[in-house]
Write the structure tokens for this entry.
Amino acid sequence: MAAQIVEQATRLFAARGFVGASLQDIAKAVGIRKPSLLYHFPSKDDLRRSVLEQMLEHWNEVVPKILRAATSGHEQFDAIGEETIKFFSEDPDRARVLLRELLDRPDEMGPLVRKHVQPWTEVVASYIRKGQAQGRVHPDVDPEAYVSAVINLILSTIAVHAVVGPVLGGESSSSEAIQPRLLDEVLRVARSALFLPEPATPAALPRSS
């Protein structure tokens, strides 16, 4: 039951904001009465914290596993980027809720970001510095600023992708068609901004007869 409450709260907080979504609305969406909701979450603030903690804790679990499994800079980049996109694409309301909270309550979100995001951000930044030392990553990249910028780019792209169809043009403006195009471009931009071009492989010389 608690998982259903969190799921519906995420959806309604994303659509209406924390203030606009009432506990009664959330209880109705779950199919229970408000007292039953309060049994699991004594207050609206408790429910909001649970929604945010659940999303942010995901990264404390997933990102270290990806980094340990990857063997090169490109593999690490692709694995983290794809996992981030997969998590938020499965439910775009997650991205919308995070953006709303970051904009509406930055003072409250600061400690959560430091607890759940900063530790793995530092790990990723260390890999970027390693790549710079090895000559694989642009030397002028600011590691922490780069990670922050890419997080913002992915979150904002997923959160607003449904309303930018006219900008893309083309025959199909459905959400299912738009989102992959945008996210592929986000990863291309992020990848090219990070890694130096690989040297071209010299063409094989013709063998003498």
User: Anything to note?
Assistant: The mean pLDDT is 84. The chain has one domain: 48-194.
